[in-house]
Amino acid sequence: LLLFQTMETPKYELVIEAKDMGGLDVGLTGTATATILIDDKNDHPPEFTKKEFQATVKEGVTGVIVNLTVGDRDDPATGAWRAVYTIINGNPGQSFEIHTNPQTNEGMLSVVKPLDYEISAFHTLLIKVENEDPLIPDIAYGPSSTATVQITVEDVNEGPVFHPNPMTVTKQENIPIGSVVLTVNATDPDTLQHQTIRYSVYKDPAGWLEINPTNGTIGTTAVLDRESPYVQNNIYTALFLAIDSGNPPATGTGTLHITLEDINDNVPSLYPTLAKVCDDAKDLRVVVLGASDKDLHPNTDPFKFELSKQSGPEKLWRITKLNNTHAQVILLQNLKKANYNIPISVTDSGKPPLTNNTELKLQVCSCKKSKMDCSATDALHISMTLILLSLFSLFCKSFT
Q1: Do 216 and 296 fall into the same domain?
Q2: How many C-beta atoms surround the C-beta of residue 253 within 10 A?
Q3: Buried b (16+ CB within 10 A) or exposed e, 359-378
Q4: Does residue 305 belong to any structural domain of this protein?
Q5: What is the pLDDT of residue 38?
Q6: Looking at 154, 187, 218, which one is the last position of a domain?
Q7: In this predicted model, what pLDDT tens digit does every residue of 68-125 receive, in sequence order?
Q8: For residue 256, what are the domain limits?
């Protein structure tokens, strides 16, 4: 019987000699060498170097916490030697995993889900070790192929947690300054330390909010504006901190989403504000005007377009609605080269509606050889009624 573990190398050589003539000295002799290679069989189970291992880990931390050592008398780097570890008890939450170190054959026990000191300060794992290859018949794994790992969890000062997170609330954009938006709720996971919590503003991009440091009530310090560039998709986002009284203190962050409901607080705007036309134009349709509103429906279109009252004995232009958002300005006659201001009002459909009174600057230009000359225009066109009023005023002053 050749024992693999007692040989320096897994090889056995035999020199065989053969003689003819019955082995007489006058006979001839021949020799041959027989080389026998010994294959290792898994006839030794792995055994832990001790029955109990100790490990300490801080709550909230992941990674390797202890290396479990074993011995195996089979040939290293073979399936009869390589160890396979299994956690067979004490891991119902799957917080632990164990893997084999391929160089040392040790079992690397890791925390893969952070542990919570407040739930359990101690864990006991039962671990078994086997080989990749099965044991030969009549060889079995014994008590030394299992070991216990005692794990102690150290308490860490954890930051307060907001409930829920993110927090959501819906408010009108015009609520008065000082209105209560929400009262936040944060709790400290360190229930055994009996700490207090104070609150503060972390990120408030528009500077609209404040928070009571003691009770967590959030109020407004300015008027909320849905049309602000700090509002995305009708939602304003701010961040708040909850800080405990630990040493050192720990901090938790909470996110607040405020959905802003629209009110009619923006007048419609008119575009363009400048138009040009030739003094001898045959087509007296001057310009198509459009209106836009920063508010949401129903506080926007359909818009109502109107001309303010025209001064003078003659009406020079009119405005015609094309659709809910556009209208057309038409001249009623050719005008002399000059600059004219056409007063226009545009009103939205909000309740109550808002009106924007604005002016369209119309430049009447001379057009020759397909070139429009708007330079050196005459003075702003003034109606005869205004001229007479001015002359009358000067006359009165001179008489006085």
Answers
A1: no
A2: 16
A3: ebebebbbbeeeeeeeeebe
A4: yes
A5: 63
A6: 154
A7: 999 999 999 899 999 999 999 999 999 999 999 999 999 999 999 999 999 999 999 9
A8: 161-261
Residue 324 lies in a domain: yes
Q: Are 261 and 224 in contact (CB under 8 A)?
A: no
- What's the helix, strand, coil split of the chain in %, to 5? 5, 45, 50
| Residues 219 and 276 reside in one and the same domain | no
DSSP strand pairing (107-111 vs 96-100): antiparallel
Least confident residue range of 5-9, 45-49, 262-266, 336-340: 5-9
Convert 101-134 to b/e letters by CB count within 10 Å (16 or more is b): eeeebbbbbebeeebbbeeeeebebebbbbbebe
Residue 8: is its pLDDT beyond 70? no
Whether 213 contacts 198, CB under 8 Å? yes
> Are residues 52 and 150 both part of a single domain?
yes
The SS3 call for residue 148 is strand
Q: Are strands 70-71 and 167-172 parallel, antiparallel or unpaired?
A: unpaired
Angstrom distances, CA of residue 148 to CA of 20, 42, 386: 67, 25, 105
Same-domain check for residues 149 and 168: no
Provide the 8-state DSSP code for 268. Answer: -
Tell me which DSSP letter residue 234 carries.
Answer: T
**Assigned domain for 106 exists:** yes
Q: For residue 334, give both structure tokens.
A: 């050719």
Q: What's the pTM value of the predicted model, to 2 decimals? A: 0.70
Distance between first and last Cα of the chain: 146
Three state DSSP letters for 276-321: EEECCCCCCEEEEEEEECCCCCCCCCCCEEEECCCCCCCCCEEEEE
Residues 255 and 311 in one domain: no
Q: Can you read off the two tokens belonging to residue 146?
A: 């299992």
> What average pLDDT is seen over the chain?
89
State which of 242, 261, 280 marks the end of a domain: 261
Q: Domain tally for the chain?
A: 3
- Would you put residue 234 in left (φ > 0), alpha (ψ -120 to 50) or beta? left
Same domain, 275 and 365: yes
| Res. 379: pLDDT tops 50 | no
Integer Cα distance of 93 and 98 in angstroms: 14
Which CATH number characterizes residue 76's domain? 2.60.40.60
Give CA separation, 11 vs 2, 44, 192, in Å. 10, 20, 66
> What pLDDT does residue 352 have?
94
Is 27 inside a domain boundary? no
Q: Is the pLDDT of residue 224 over 90?
A: yes
Question: Whats the size of the chain, residue-wise?
Answer: 400
